Amino acid sequence: MTYPEREVAYASRYPPKKKIGPTSLDDLKKGRAFDGDDNSDPKTHPDWYDLDRFETVIPFFKQHAFTMTLMWHTSLVIGFSLNCLLEALVFTGDSGTPKKALARYMLTFERLIDWHSGNIWDPSDKAFTSLQGVRTGHAAVRKDMESTIKREGKFMTMYDMGCVQAGFMGAMITMPQKFGMHATSKELDDYVYFWKCVGRQLGVSDEFNLCSLDDRDTVTGIVTQITDLIEDTSLHPPAEFRPMAQAYVDGINLSLPFPLMSVDATLALDYWGLEKPQPRRLSWADSARFWFFRWVFIMIGYAPYFERTMSWLLLFSFKHFPPTTRLCPVGQHAGQTRTCPHREVGSGFKTFVKVYVIFGILLSVLSFLACLGVAGVFMFQVGLTAVAVCSRMELQNYVVGQ
Predict the structure, then answer these.
(1) What are 157's strand-pairing partners?
(2) CA-wise closest residue to 216 among 170, 274, 182
(3) Is 239 helix (H, G, I), strand (E, B) or coil?
(4) How many CB atoms sit inside 10 A of residue 304's CB?
(5) H/E/C letters for each residue in 195-235?
(6) How is residue 26 annotated by DSSP?
(7) Are 99 and 344 in contact (CB under 8 A)?
(8) How far is CA 25 from the centre of its chain?
(9) Helices (H), 274-303
């Protein structure tokens, strides 16, 4: 038997395992019938495990952490309008006031940094512990909701987990250029794979893991369908949407030198990114906020050192000025599975963030002036070249005339 014949025989005997996963929103919606955790063992590796590919996200995140944070912020605000996600947040009561919301979402961002900077597959790694802590928290909240809320259907389902995945990586995959981000096709493909890994470690089965098929075009199609759904719900949101979104925004503003964020300005950025008409007229203050962030996105796109500097400072602040303690500050809630009600954001972190924001504004202005300077030099050179060409042509015409 020749070598090609042996290859064909082997392939027919051991065909490659077919990939499974959702190809549309309808496929994902079937996950409403299943709990959002399949009880898979996080210490075992699936057959598609590729550590080298997973770790490509680490340098990518270091470069783009600032831009990705803005993406997560805009996605979260409009995501509050999805009832399936809002229900669990309202039930826990962990983010119903500005102080609680600030502590809760700073902890969330700390965990995202852990996942993007470590190895979620290694039980000895901080990223693994962080992610499994979130998984345990999901299980506790799901159990409490099932025993407390009397209604048909399941809570925190596979479908809900898919929507959460879309919130964290959807903007990156569908509209990175809107935020000024420059990312290669391979980098975006690898980021889809990263969230495939995160979903698996959170207990999302391959059948309902948004990124299971490891195909960016398929994921983009599903994310677009989810985005259309969120757009509709944001126009007529649940009653709890505005209080929850306002608590989050007010909480973020507590750590800023001035109220830089607002719900309406953030929603305006969402609609702009989606290239949808603005549903409401903005106040002058919200218009200023909207155009400020548009300005920031331009600086990200045209002044790469601005994004890199802001990303480095952002990660530096969370490393050296952690916003919250991982343990209960008053000794209660040991091993808690939900956000500790006593946790507050430290004054050191708040001070650093205020300086960070002011520095970012100054850096963006300097970046703009630098861009104007480069453009001015370029136009000056073009002008000199044009003058030289015209002078040469006139000289040639003069010589010919003589």
Answers:
(1) 35
(2) 170
(3) coil
(4) 14
(5) HHHHHHHCCCCCCCCCCCCCCHHHHHHHHHHHHHHHHHHHH
(6) H
(7) yes
(8) 20
(9) 284-302
User: Structure tokens of 138?
Assistant: 């999901």
Length of the chain in terms of residues written: 402
CA–CA separation, 379 and 366 (whole Å): 20
Q: How far apart are CA 94 and CA 339, in angstroms?
A: 6
Contact 215, 20 (CB under 8 A): no
Are 30 and 208 a contacting pair, CB within 8 Å?
yes
* Residues of the chain with confidence (pLDDT) below 70: 1-18, 321-357, 359-361, 364, 367-402
Q: Closest Cα partner for 73 from 287, 341, 273, 219?
A: 273
Written as six digits, the tokens of 364 are 């963006």
Distance CA 391, CA 307 (A): 43
Token pair in block for residue 368: 């703009």
Per-residue burial over 13-33, b = 16 or more CB atoms within 10 Å of its CB, e = otherwise? eeeeeeeebbeebebbbebee
325 CB-contact burial (10 Å; exposed 0-12 / middle 13-18 / buried 19+) = middle
Amino acid residing at 94: D
Determine the angle formed by the axes of helices 98-117 and 57-79, rounding to 10 degrees.
150
Q: Which two tokens stand for residue 103?
A: 């502590």
Return all residues near 241 (Cβ < 8 A) that are at least 6 apart.
80, 81, 86, 234
> Alpha-carbon distance 108 to 243, whole Å?
20
Contact 266, 77 (CB under 8 A): yes
- pLDDT at position 16 is 52
What gap in Å lies between CA 364 and CA 306, rounded to an integer? 7
Q: Which token pair is 257?
A: 């030198």
C-alpha closest to that of 212 among 11, 43, 17 = 17
Token readout for 188 is 């975006």
Q: Which amino acid appears at position 187 of this protein?
A: E
Token representation of residue 343: 């946790």
**What local confidence, expressed as pLDDT, does residue 135 receive?**
95
In the structure encoding, which two tokens stand for residue 38, read together? 């399949």
Q: E strand or H helix at 270, and its extent?
A: helix 263-273
Report the C-alpha gap between 161 and 202 in whole angstroms.
9
Nearest to 229 by CA among 90, 81, 85: 81
* Adjacent-strand bridge partners of 35: 157
